[in-house]
Amino acid sequence: MHRDASADTDHVTCLWCESDNVEQLGEFGPGLMTAQWFCRACRAPFERIRTGEASWRRS
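Predicted structure:
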């Protein structure tokens, strides 16, 4: 499932080019504390540490 960063409460930007034209590729990365993202501007994948209990805990 792909998700635009605009749907999140946090403002996500690319770690490499600082563009905000990013999409979330996966809810979980290699660990439960990270999420996978992709920058549409520089076409680089990156991971971001998840913030907030609600963003990673399922009820």
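Summary: Strands lie at 3-4, 22-26, 34-39, 45-49.
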